[in-house]
Amino acid sequence: MTELTRLTIAEARDALRKGETTSLEITEACLGAIEGAGALNAFVHNTPEIARDQAKAADERQQGRDEALAMNGIPLGIKDLFCTKGVPSQAASRILEGFKPEYESTVTQQLFDAGSVMLGKLNMDEFAMGSSNETSVYGDVVNPWKVDGRALTPGGSSGGSASAVAADLCLAATGTDTGGSIRQPAAFVGITGLKPTYGRVSRWGVVAFASSLDQAGPMCKSVRDCAIMLGAMAGHDPKDSTSADLAVPDFEAALTGDIRGKKIGIPKEYRMEGMPPEIEALWADGAAMLRDAGAEIVDISLPHTKYALPAYYVIAPAEASSNLARYDGVKYGHRAQMAQGDGITEMYEKTRAEGFGAEVQRRVMIGTYVLSAGFYDAYYNRARRVRALIKKDFEDVFAQGVDAILTPATPSAAFGLGEMADADPVQMYLNDVFTVTVNLAGLPGISVPAGLDKQGLPLGLQLIGRPWEEGDLLNTAYSLESAAGFVEKPAKWW
Amino acid sequence: MLDLTFEPPKPKVIQGAQSDWELVIGLEVHAQVSSKAKLFSGASTAFGAEPNSNVAFVDSAMPGMLPVINEFCVAQAVRTGLGLKAEINLTSAFDRKNYFYPDLPQGYQISQLYHPIVGEGEVLVEMGPGVARLVRIERIHLEQDAGKSIHDMDPAMSFVDLNRTGVALMEIVSRPDIRGPEEAAAYVVKLRQILRYLGTCDGNMQNGNLRADVNVSICQPGAYERYQETQDFSHLGTRCEIKNMNSMRFIQQAIEHEARRQIAIVEGGGKVDQETRLYDPDKGETRSMRSKEEAHDYRYFPCPDLLPLEIEQGWVDDIAADLPELPDAKKARLMELGLTDYDASVLTAEKEDADYFEEVAAGRDAKLSANWVINELFGRLKQDEKSTAESPITAAQLGGIVDLIKAETISGKIAKDLFEIVYTEGGDPAQVVEERGMKQVTDTGAIEAALDEIIAANPAQVEKAKVNPKLAGWFVGQVMKATGGKANPKAVNQLVAQKLNG
């Protein structure tokens, strides 16, 4: 048990149940690892006191009875987008400077209720807007994977979560996914990340980016861990009107590995111009693995795919421009110094100019523009119609009997930090090209590490499932995971 | 059944320097929903609480907080719609109206622009017997109220009170069917009456629980009729909206002033600008708040935190079945009982008055009951500045007095004394009459004895009365005096006539 931090949730759970270790031991190991991983810049607020208290309580529970809670004693990292009571929760933005909520998000509360331990808050792109974790007020997160000594992005927006799990600073982490923010970073660091069906996990207490797209999910070291952790995160929440009133099945029990007779669709529209051959090859390998496991591979068409990215970059900023209006310097967070004679307008302007970074400002301005009189129909309403068509594309395919859809998770492996600094922002947005359709359609999607590129960087494949069928999706992912046998870890340099 | 035959009132005509002008008026009434909790949070709506004490996390727009619709407020809106004979939309949706202001913590108001919960309805506004205006309701939607900014507590700072933030409002939008200041005020009075009958808004205008935005334009005689035929607004003048009026008197004054202002502009060769204005009652003028160019671009879009609001017809039917009798129906019913239009209007103006009256009149003479409620009780309460709910005399007590009058146990005059006793001291009227010997003397023997005494003592008067029958009244008065007013006047009259002519 020398490498406690490397344990998966399932392994730790079993070891704890057998009494081979204690939560406090694992927690201390993680706290030590975090301590030594400053170079990754993954954790931004450490909560060792909370962690130790929760670990001790978990250990007491473990001794008290045979059947422990699902996540008893498991140390987690929590993305800074989740409001955690009494703990800084800033969405990695200056505008929420000093903000400590007086409430606990439903997701973190449920994780605590399931016995989890919180190690601290994780870095991310500001307000979850970004694909490289370069927009955070806390600075860039660094990917534990390196090539030629180059610092790479862990992806975004859940970059801190990805980096922390990949570097074994915690057993698993929460993420949120609005356009790919769980799946893309998971792929960039070689871990597994699941975006559940929209409405499966409560949004209450999660700082909103784009309310109709945001969904929290687990970022873990294995498919099994995603199943365990999703079970703890999911469930109907009367405090979130968009939360579905559905029972939460035992996702772990769905992991039989048997996918014989399942129909897996390969969408031709995802074969993009200029896609790196390695990604193509990985995709083909993934399909072959699933076929070998007994699934039927079919070519499918999702004809409106090419309109997804533009529609997403209208809808998400539109909602964001409204959701972020509350950060005005009046009630909490940052307020700019006022000059003599400044009125409320100056207070808003200065506060928001200082408090929001460039990417957030860009999206707020795009969103304001697409909702403004005279442009609403041309942009926002049109994007909504596109969204409906994209949703229908998936419904049609599922109606034809397809059980899951296999695509690459990202169009490339992790790129260098700062590499896109001078690029057109749209180049950055292209990172989401394979993932945004899933958010627009509200479907579950999972990113599974499936191999390394020739530079030795991890690559992921995405599986998209039917709505509310996370169990089935996880089982297909489990089969892919077993076949791919991805076990590589980044060499420790930090 | 309710008699709906009425003539529309004549539109108000204002004489300009060059020609006559008519007014076209439409109102948006904001009515605070009577509900203990806010539209999207469990926070209290109690008026007058410590600043910022009735505020839930979602009301102060804390990060990650989400709205959850209060079903009772939805029921109240449906009830209101049914009371205004309006269509109920089984599917409606909430939109965000975006603008920045410190008393709007979210930076948007959740409202219903595209799909309101209530569609077209109507309000009958009576302007006199047989004269009424049928005002069409365009829609009613649910929305959140804003908080309160306080600018006069400190020279350098402003303060914000979020107690009102998120309280449910119904915005009741009329068509431009109102044709004068008096009609506009009467419309608000009627709307308020209906809402209070329904129990969906307390109508307290002083606290701002009912306030109106008034849209006013002017047109040449005949133009409105062309608009009515075509529903083409180009026949009408450019409208101005006067915001936030919370008194009937100010509504009338503001419309009058605004119409005259517009007439002066048009007759001077100018053009009325579409804009939002405020009425200053001290100066008796409206002034510009913001022009069309300065108007906010509210960037309405569907609120992604809320699913479309779906309600079931069965639920609506249940609410409809529980609807109280509304003012028009109640008034018609009272008139069928024999009350005059005026008495019926007075008694139905406030639901509590009507309820009181109905309790008094139950099983009794309606007209007599109405007289006693309106003339004696209301007069007395007004003198004491008391409401009907605060009346020291209950409907049962007043009914008891009416019974004593009807049974001729007491005379009308004694009844007034009895009323005053019961009003100030309480007690069962019949018992009071018994204990204090206030019973009317109907025993002709006793009356005759008194009369004989008076005749014997006044022979000269008797002689005169035989010549001039008008003097009989003098003998009646003397008998009443002798019996302490308790003699039955009818019996006295008869006996006096008999004796003098006999």
Automatic annotation (TrEMBL), chain A:
Q: Which reaction is the catalytic activity of this chain?
A: L-glutamyl-tRNA(Gln) + L-glutamine + ATP + H2O = L-glutaminyl-tRNA(Gln) + L-glutamate + ADP + phosphate + H(+)
List the InterPro entries: Amidase (IPR000120), Amidase_CS (IPR020556), Amidase_dom (IPR023631), AS_sf (IPR036928), GatA (IPR004412)
Keyword Manganese on entry: no
Q: Keyword set for this entry?
A: ATP-binding, Ligase, Nucleotide-binding, Protein biosynthesis, Transferase
The active site of this protein is located at 79 (charge relay system), 157 (charge relay system), 181 (acyl-ester intermediate)
Q: Which residues form the Amidase domain?
A: 25-474
The record's section on Pfam families has: Amidase
Q: What is its EC number?
A: 6.3.5.7
Name its GO BP terms in alphabetical order.
translation
Q: Tell me yes or no: is Ligase among this UniProt entry's keywords.
A: yes
The molecular function terms in GO held by this entry are: ATP binding; glutaminyl-tRNA synthase (glutamine-hydrolyzing) activity; transferase activity
Q: Name one GO cellular component term.
A: glutamyl-tRNA(Gln) amidotransferase complex
Q: Give the HAMAP family listed for this entry.
A: GatA (MF_00120)
Q: Which family does it belong to?
A: Belongs to the amidase family. GatA subfamily.
What is the role of the protein in this entry? Allows the formation of correctly charged Gln-tRNA(Gln) through the transamidation of misacylated Glu-tRNA(Gln) in organisms which lack glutaminyl-tRNA synthetase. The reaction takes place in the presence of glutamine and ATP through an activated gamma-phospho-Glu-tRNA(Gln).
Alphabetical list of PANTHER family matching this protein:
GLUTAMYL-TRNA(GLN) AMIDOTRANSFERASE SUBUNIT A (PTHR11895:SF151), TRANSAMIDASE (PTHR11895)
Subunit structure of this chain's protein:
Heterotrimer of A, B and C subunits.
Q: What is this protein called?
A: Glutamyl-tRNA(Gln) amidotransferase subunit A
Q: Which organism is it from?
A: Candidatus Rhodobacter oscarellae
Lineage from the top down? Bacteria, Pseudomonadati, Pseudomonadota, Alphaproteobacteria, Rhodobacterales
Gene symbol here is gatA
TrEMBL record, chain B:
- Cite the InterPro entries for this sequence: Asn/Gln-tRNA_amidoTrfase_suB/E, Asn/Gln-tRNA_Trfase_suB/E_cat, Asn/Gln_amidotransferase, Asn/Gln_tRNA_amidoTrase-B-like, GatB, GatB_C_1, GatB_Yqey_C_2, Gln-tRNA_amidoTrfase_suB_CS
Task: Write down the chemical reaction(s) this protein catalyses.
Answer: L-glutamyl-tRNA(Gln) + L-glutamine + ATP + H2O = L-glutaminyl-tRNA(Gln) + L-glutamate + ADP + phosphate + H(+); L-aspartyl-tRNA(Asn) + L-glutamine + ATP + H2O = L-asparaginyl-tRNA(Asn) + L-glutamate + ADP + phosphate + 2 H(+)
Q: Which SMART domains match?
A: GatB_Yqey
Domain named Asn/Gln amidotransferase is located at: 355-500
What's an example of a GO molecular-function annotation for this chain? Answer: ATP binding
What EC number(s) does this enzyme carry? 6.3.5.-
Q: Which UniProt keyword terms apply here? A: ATP-binding, Ligase, Nucleotide-binding, Protein biosynthesis, Transferase
A single BP term in Gene Ontology: translation
A Pfam family of the record is GatB_N
Tell me which domain of life the UniProt entry assigns to the organism this sequence originates from: Bacteria
Which PANTHER family does UniProt cross-reference here?
GLUTAMYL-TRNA GLN AMIDOTRANSFERASE SUBUNIT B MITOCHONDRIAL AND PROKARYOTIC PET112-RELATED, GLUTAMYL-TRNA(GLN) AMIDOTRANSFERASE SUBUNIT B, MITOCHONDRIAL
The record describes its quaternary structure and partners as: Heterotrimer of A, B and C subunits.
Q: Which family does it belong to?
A: Belongs to the GatB/GatE family. GatB subfamily.
What does this protein do, in the record's words?
A: Allows the formation of correctly charged Asn-tRNA(Asn) or Gln-tRNA(Gln) through the transamidation of misacylated Asp-tRNA(Asn) or Glu-tRNA(Gln) in organisms which lack either or both of asparaginyl-tRNA or glutaminyl-tRNA synthetases. The reaction takes place in the presence of glutamine and ATP through an activated phospho-Asp-tRNA(Asn) or phospho-Glu-tRNA(Gln).
Instruction: Give the protein's recorded name.
Output: Aspartyl/glutamyl-tRNA(Asn/Gln) amidotransferase subunit B
Q: Which organism is it from?
A: Candidatus Rhodobacter oscarellae
